[in-house]
Amino acid sequence: MLRYLLHKLALIIPTVFGISLAAFAFVRLLPGDPILALAGERGVSPERYAELIERFGYNRPYVVQYLEYIGRVLTGDFGISLATKRPVLGEFQALFPATLELATIALIIAVLIGIPAGIFAAVKRGSWFDQATMGVALTGYSMPIFWWGLLLIIFFSGYLGWTPVSGRIGLQYFFRPTTGFMLIDSLISGKSGAFRSAASHLILPAIVLATIPLAVIARQTRSAMLEVLGEDYVRTARAKGLAPRRVIGLHAFRNALIPVVTTIGLQVGTLMAGAILTETIFSWPGIGKWMIDAIAKRDYVVVQSGLLIIALIVMAVNLIVDVLYAVINPRIRVQ
Amino acid sequence: MKKKLTFAAALLAASVLGGMANAKQLVYCSEASPAGFDPSPWSGGNDFDASSRTIYSRLVEFEHGKTTIKPGLAESWTVSDDGLEYTFKLRPGVKFQTTDYFTPTRDLNADDVIFSFERQWKKENPWFDYLAGTGWEYFAGMGFPDLLKEIVKVDDLTVKFVLNKPEVAFLPDLGMDFASIVSKEYADQLDKAGTRQQFTQKPIGTGPFQFVDYQVDAVIRYAAWDGYYGGRQKIDDLIFAITTDPAVRAQKLKAGECDIMSYPAPADIAGLKADPNLKVDEQEGLNIGYMAYNTTQAPFDKVEVRKALNMAVNKQAILDAVYQGAGQAAINPIPPTMWSYNKDIKDDPYDPDAAKKMLADAGVKDLSMKIWAMPVSRPYNPNAQRVAELIQADYAKIGVKAEIVSYEWTEYRERGKQKDRDGAFQLGWTGDNGDPDNFLFLLGCDAIGQSNYAIWCNQEFEALLQKGKATTDVAERTKIYEEAQVVFKREAPWLTIAHSKVFMPMNKKVSGFVMDPLGIHRFDGVDVTE
């Protein structure tokens, strides 16, 4: 198991360097200039421009800039935002809990609905339920997030008034964050109604963010279940007279779980990408909105470091998923 | 005394944190997060709304809803005959805000005023570079480094600005956001503690509201400052709910999650007006959207060609399709709400046949050109791409082929400044201080390579511009600028497209909000009826 883990870790190191290089190059490939973007529409004098370029070191060869950047990152210094002048890591730490909370709830929704829906669709293959589930999943998968979010806001918040439009909690509740997770902080605050308000603010963004992963998980579960349900051991189990629920739950589902867990792991990346749009629509103060703002402002430091931190998190989650495989299926460890 | 103030600050924080039961609260759905709360390093309207207009005050202030100035932290001032010395008498007893992170031991004095400017001006000032790479763009952009000779403390409550040259707009300039007065005592305290960064994160000013808390990208909270020299505000708590999408802001306003919002999308305005709980204030914006020809390149160096192209454009179609009723055709380079606007000037008529003939008479055949379209939406031009398409179609009617080009925003402006730029360049301007020079300088000879995208240096216009700058009498300046507008219209370096209207939707329970011609959002004097 340790060897397996070390092998996986060894793969991560070159990937991290590759991503740091890609993030570094990506932001520089974008048209635009960070100093001019910073100066705003009124511009900056050529003298001051030259001073600032020199100060930030953007006039030096890219190799030197990259090596210096990666050197600082290795000591835990992710730099200071060009736009806000705050440390990138500090901004990330302040905003990430909001994204993590939203992504976690979205993933829970996706798993809790996606897996049972996939199982039932596979068991009742060809039925109206199967067709309807797969139809809805395909629609969900193809739905533009921005449009979908706005549609839900207009209907549920605007027309029915059931949910708040945006934000993380009602503005009447004011307490300084303890954990950064609003559900937990609202409970700790002891203010009556705060938790309920935080939960109600999570509903729409979580549904929007869960839509694509839910569709993918449901489809993957269905296809994995169909494959397993056709296996000889399942037929044998049925022939032995085992209850259908036991056949599906114990024999079929456990074996169908590997590709489903893989899919769930991969959804972490999808959730991060989806968070960018979801957070923008719902004014959710997380890292998605933060990255969008940084790209618009050509904030080199935030973009390159932010992308690297996000990539590190996605890789860490994938590593955990890999370890989970090995726990679920011992054969993987041997391979 | 110090103990008392600390206790008061603690009490304020506790009451805000605890949520005062009967506190009057105003929620403003703002459009973007502020980069920081220091009013001088940044230049975005959202930065100013969140810092300078709420937390800080200036020596002089713009009258609410106007561009005329009135005494602010300076209760009076005198100007020397040669226009080079401005001596300000500071208002006595002005208190800096007392919070849980700062308790002032003295009132505002001349040291604060000098510090507020010198930190933006003198590189040797330790605060010049306290935020890595701050350009102090506004201070530099308004020409203050060249304009200021020295700032002298005459006594604790008297401060004198000595200029290198007369500048008629100096007083309105001091009413601008970058000229907000900050606390030197607070800066010194942070210096000692080695926490300079806090200056922009936990601000201290003398304005109507004091900072309480900022949850990044989400909510800014302020409380009315009891010691405000202009009197305590009617609302207790002011909250900025940062909501970047205009459609979502509109939904929040309708749902009662905010009381007032900025910058509605044109498509949402009718719906907001129809809501029985809401009202929508509107005002002519102090702005202009234009398209600048490169007057140094043939055939645009010929006035008749520029005039012909102007006459080919159907402005009404642009107003209908792009501004959707929220704009008016621009005739002059300054908006009609600005003093010295020349009402007698007539716009070039929309006449494609005459335009075609004028081009032919000028010897221009088979003209191909580029139309530059901004990649961003701005109040003065909500959709430059669509405007470019409409102009392209109009030009086709007179036999001119136009290709639309666009670049990333900073790149766009840099390429536009190049003297050999090919084609006509769309851009616009929003006024800073209500002075006509603040618009007309865009076409000055000195502005070539900076803000003069027409690359137009007309000696007659330039002489008027300089004369206007050196004249203090408003009636005389009005005449000078009226004449400058005649020269502008005759020479047509720009196609003047439109002045846009600005809308401010709010709940009917909000009273006392005054729209500001300079586009800032001020909440002093606002009340909410329960």
From TrEMBL, chain A:
The primary location reported for this protein is membrane
SUPFAM superfamilies xref list = MetI-like (SSF161098)
Domain ABC transmembrane type-1: start-end pairs: 96-321
GO CC, alphabetical: plasma membrane
Q: Which domain of life is it from?
A: Bacteria
Any one GO molecular-function label of the UniProt entry: dipeptide transmembrane transporter activity
Instruction: Provide the protein's localization.
Output: Cell membrane
InterPro entries listed in its UniProt record: BPD_transp_1_N, MetI-like, MetI-like_sf
- Xref: PROSITE patterns: ABC_TM1 (PS50928)
The transmembrane residues are 9-30, 102-123, 144-162, 198-218, 256-277, 307-328
Keywords of the record, alphabetical order, are: Cell membrane, Membrane, Transmembrane, Transmembrane helix, Transport
Regarding the membrane, this protein is recorded as: Multi-pass membrane protein
Does Transmembrane helix appear among the keywords? yes
Output the PANTHER family linked to this UniProt entry: DIPEPTIDE TRANSPORT SYSTEM PERMEASE PROTEIN DPPB-RELATED
Give the family, as the similarity comment puts it.
Belongs to the binding-protein-dependent transport system permease family.
Q: What is this protein called?
A: Peptide ABC transporter permease
**Source organism of this protein record:** Mesorhizobium temperatum
